[in-house]
Design brief:
The structure is a single chain. It contains ten helices and no strands. The chain has about 210 residues and is mainly alpha-helical. It has one domain (about 5-210): YcfC-like (Orthogonal Bundle), CATH 1.10.3890. The longest helix has 25 residues, at about 5-30.
C-alpha cells in the first residue's frame, strides 16, 4: 500500500526539499562542491513526475531530506540563532518563480516535454553525470529563466564562472522548482510558513527522530 502522509507532513517534506536545494545552491556557488547523495536525490525528483505518493519523489525515505528538515528547525524554530537572509532569499525566489510558472499552462507543458526527453538520457548516462547536468541546466535556462524575476546567485566569482558549476546550480534550481510545485500541490502556502511555524518545526523534528520509509 502506498504510504499515506498527513497534509502537514507532506508540506513539511516538500518545504524541506526547497530548503535543501537552496542550501546546496549556496554551497556550490561558494565551493563548487555538494553532497553527491543529496544531489542525486534532488535530480531524481525532477524526473519523478508520476509518483505513487509525495515521499516517493525523494526516494521513499525521509532520511534523504534530513538536511532540509534540519534547516527548517534551524531557521524557523523559536530558538533559532542561525537565520540566513541569503538562504531565505533563495527560498522566496523559488516560490515566486513557481507562481509565475503555474500561470502559464503552455510553459508547464513545455517543461513536461523537456523533462520527458531528458529522462530518456538515463538509458545512457548517470543522473549526476556532466551530460545530464547540462540537460537539466538547459531546461532551466530555456523554460524557467524567461519567466522573469531571475534568481541572483551569490558566491565566489571564480567558482561561478565554471560551466560545470553553472550547470550544477541551474540543475539544483530546477529541482527547487519541482519541489515548490509539489509543495503547492500538497497545500503549501506562504502564509503557512508565517503562521504555522511551530507546527512545521515540530513535524520536522518528528521526522528526524522517527524517519519515515
Amino acid at each position: 500500500m502506498p504510504l499515506k502522509l498527513s497534509p502537514l507532513k507532506e508540506q513539511t517534506l516538500t518545504f524541506a526539499a526547497i530548503c535543501q536545494v537552496s542550501h546546496l545552491v549556496q554551497l556550490c556557488s561558494r565551493s563548487g562542491n555538494v553532497d553527491q547523495d543529496e544531489l542525486t536525490t534532488l535530480l531524481n525528483s525532477i524526473l519523478n513526475t508520476s509518483p505513487e505518493n509525495t515521499l516517493a519523489v525523494y526516494g521513499s525515505n525521509s532520511e534523504n531530506l534530513k538536511h532540509g528538515l534540519q534547516l527548517i528547525i534551524d531557521h524557523l524554530g523559536a530558538k533559532s540563532t542561525q537565520k540566513d537572509p541569503e538562504l531565505t532569499r533563495y527560498i522566496v525566489s523559488l516560490i515566486n518563480l513557481e507562481r509565475k510558472l503555474i500561470k502559464k499552462p503552455q510553459t508547464m507543458s513545455t517543461l513536461g516535454e523537456r523533462i520527458t526527453q531528458t529522462n530518456r538520457q538515463l538509458d545512457h548516462f548517470d543522473i549526476n553525470s556532466d551530460t545530464m547536468l547540462a540537460s537539466f541546466a538547459s531546461i532551466y535556462s530555456d523554460v524557467i529563466s524567461p519567466l522573469g524575476a531571475r534568481i541572483q546567485v551569490a558566491g565566489e566569482p571564480a567558482i561561478l564562472k565554471q560551466s560545470s558549476n553553472q550547470h550544477k546550480i541551474r540543475s539544483l534550481l530546477l529541482a527547487g522548482i519541482r519541489a515548490t510545485v509539489l509543495w503547492r500541490q500538497v497545500g503549501g502556502k506562504r502564509r503557512n510558513i508565517l503562521f504555522s511555524r511551530a507546527k512545521i518545526v515540530a513535524c520536522a523534528e518528528q521526522f528526524l527522530q522517527e524517519p519515515t520509509f
